From TrEMBL, chain A:
Its main location: membrane. PANTHER family: INNER MEMBRANE ABC TRANSPORTER PERMEASE PROTEIN YDCU-RELATED-RELATED, PUTRESCINE TRANSPORT SYSTEM PERMEASE PROTEIN POTH. This is ABC transporter permease subunit. It is a multi-pass membrane protein. It comes from Aquibium carbonis. Residues 102-308 form the ABC transmembrane type-1 domain.
Automatic annotation (TrEMBL), chain B:
It is found in: Cell membrane. SUPFAM superfamilies: MetI-like (SSF161098). This is ABC transporter permease subunit. GO terms for biological process: transmembrane transport.
Length: 320, 272
């Protein structure tokens, strides 16, 4: 048992080769089955979205042309290929609605990521500094809201932010305000909704980074006369940076395409791309344009997604 | 590490948790409100729960959701565990970069994109939208969450246990079921629970992937929320929260007792 406890980090690669582990068919299946599943249900659908974004709307089922048909053979396929156009993308550039929706999505997602970081950092820091016996409980308390339905948590804010809602009742009772504040159906409500819903996503990676931090570094800096604030920026923040990157991406990326929050908390004035895509698809039934909207959104997210994957891969490497 | 818990730390934690929990607490409190006005307290009542159980549409939707969540969580757990094994055990195979990309990307992919792309796939292959398509969609995104949860357990897993079993003549399959599976089981269980709640909660992907006859509970709640806040929805939400809270609580108690048992076993083993 003692020997087992000491060899905590074996190198997996030679073990897999030496044990004859890789030879059994069962082990091949471990790769092949999830690979094919994700290929067919995750990657192929994107190729279809891309193809339909180049199609033209039609009054038919499915509501676009051309439709590739296997029975027409290669010639039919090549004919159909000629019918593909970039018109939908041109349409997106011509109509200011889409451009504004992209810009306001990026702005809202970026601002709410910064607010979430500002709110989440003290919480994560406090958790990392808490007595060790208390930390699992605190961690559990951060994770618990994540298990509760997203829709329910957004819905809960409607009752709070309404003009006759609980927040306004409370503020009037306190005597801070005389007339109810209009918060629901404004961008402020969207910010509150995003910060609230995604806060656990920010706190968890930050906590993971801060918990590993050696706090004696900060103490040493302070002993040498470094003021607390500059010790924070020179030591704590750089050491927490992997957590900051991972947390920010976990908030920014889904917030960009968010639909439920702008739809329930935002007003008719608020443009966000997730809502635009939804309306284009469900209300206008324009499948090609909504596909083009999705492709552009995906292109905008490629860089953040790669940043996230790198941060993820690096933290996994460290754990090995 | 020297743990001096400053006043600033305590205040920020208290405020943070207040922010996280007050909306949920208010939602639960007002589900017991006598008045139809959700924001004015008029006395305690459980009548909205009674209304809830007479709302056949809501009950049907809850039943659909429970079945979708159970089936998709189970299949996603199997596929996600396989994906986690593939990622941690096989550092080199053709297409590994693509594979890990396909496992991690759905975690952050905006739901509208996942939903739209799956819907277009189902239309392209001529699959009628309904129960089956929602289940397939939920398996696809929740298996990636299971993979991440199980992977984090597998990384800290002591491979020498498996080597010892195989040196003693156990087949790889037997080794997996006798050694690996029991060790990673807590991660698999929490993966299943995560997949179950993700499926239970999902609105956007279900709205795209579902068709007539397979309205899930979030879709039903959403269509009612758009008409306004009612205590009936508060009651439905409270029940959902209670189910999830009890589940998480049971899981953590089970995990804790397993952990205590494991430590006791280890101490016993070291004494010999």
């Amino acid at each position: 048992m003692v020997q087992l406890a000491t060899s905590d980090h074996p190198d997996p690669a030679p073990a897999a080769a030496a044990g004859g582990f890789g030879k059994a068919i069962g082990n091949r299946l471990v790769i092949i089955v999830p690979y094919l599943w994700l290929f067919f249900f995750f990657l192929v659908p994107f190729l279809i979205v891309f193809k339909i974004s180049l199609s033209t709307t039609a009054i038919a089922m499915p509501p676009y042309v051309p439709v590739f048909r296997l029975e027409e053979g290669l010639a039919g396929f090549l004919d159909s290929l000629g019918e593909l156009t970039l018109d939908n993308y041109l349409w997106l550039t011509e109509d200011a609605l889409y451009f504004n929706a992209y810009v306001s999505s990026i702005t809202i997602a970026a601002v709410s990521t910064l607010i979430t970081l500002a709110v989440g950092f003290p919480i994560a820091y406090g958790m990392a500094r808490a007595p060790a016996a208390l930390r699992p409980t605190l961690l559990m308390l951060v994770i618990l809201p994540f298990w509760t339905s997203f829709l329910i948590r957004v819905y809960a804010w409607i009752g709070i932010l309404k003009p006759e809602g609980l927040l306004n009742q409370f503020l009037i009772w306190l005597g801070v305000i005389d007339t109810p504040l209009l918060i629901l159906n404004t961008n402020t409500a969207i910010y509150i909704g995003i910060v609230y819903s995604y806060l656990p996503f920010m706190v968890l990676p930050l906590y993971a980074a801060l918990e590993k931090m050696d706090y004696s570094l900060v103490e040493a800096a302070q002993d040498l006369g470094c003021p607390p604030i500059s010790a924070f920026w020179k030591i704590t923040f750089p050491l927490a940076l992997p957590g900051v990157v991972a947390g920010s991406m976990l908030v920014f990326i889904p917030a960009m395409g968010e639909f439920v929050i702008p739809d329930l908390l935002g007003g008719s004035q608020t443009l966000m791309i997730g809502k635009t895509l939804w309306n284009e698809f469900f209300n206008n039934r324009d499948w090609p344009v909504s596909s083009a909207v999705a492709v552009i959104l995906l292109l905008l997210l490629v860089v953040p997604i790669m940043l996230f994957q790198q941060a993820q891969a690096r933290s996994l490497e460290k754990d090995r | 590490m020297n743990t001096t818990w400053s006043r600033f730390n305590i205040v920020s934690i208290v405020l943070g948790f207040a922010f996280l929990y007050i909306p949920i607490v208010l939602l639960i409190v007002f589900s017991f409100n006598e008045s139809r006005l959700v924001t004015v307290w008029a006395g305690f009542s459980t009548k909205w729960y009674g209304e809830l159980f007479r709302n056949q549409g809501l009950i049907d939707a809850a039943w659909v959701t429970a079945r979708v969540a159970f089936i998709s969580a189970t299949v996603a757990t199997v596929l996600g565990t396989m994906a986690a094994l593939a990622l941690t055990r096989y550092t080199r195979f053709r297409g590994r970069v693509l594979f890990s990309g396909m496992v991690f990307a759905p975690l952050v992919m905006p739901e509208v994109i996942t939903g739209l792309s799956l819907l277009l796939l189902f239309v392209a292959i001529g699959l009628d939208r309904g129960f089956l398509t929602v289940t397939l969609a939920h398996i696809t995104f929740s298996m990636c969450f299971v993979a991440v949860v199980v992977q984090s357990r597998l990384i800290s897993f002591d491979r020498s246990l498996e080597e010892a079993a195989m040196d003693l003549g156990a087949t790889p399959v037997k080794t997996f079921f006798a050694i690996t599976l029991p060790v990673i089981l807590p991660a698999i269980v929490s993966g299943w629970m995560l997949a179950f709640t993700l499926s239970l909660d999902d609105l956007v992907i279900a709205s795209f992937a579902s068709g007539p006859g397979a309205t899930t509970l979030p879709m039903k709640i959403y269509s009612q929320v758009r008409l306004g806040v009612t205590p009936e929805i508060n009651a439905a939400c409270t029940i959902l929260i209670a189910i999830v809270a009890v589940g998480v609580l049971i899981a953590s108690v089970v995990n804790k007792s397993r952990e205590v048992q494991r430590q006791r076993d280890e101490q016993a083993a070291q004494r010999h």
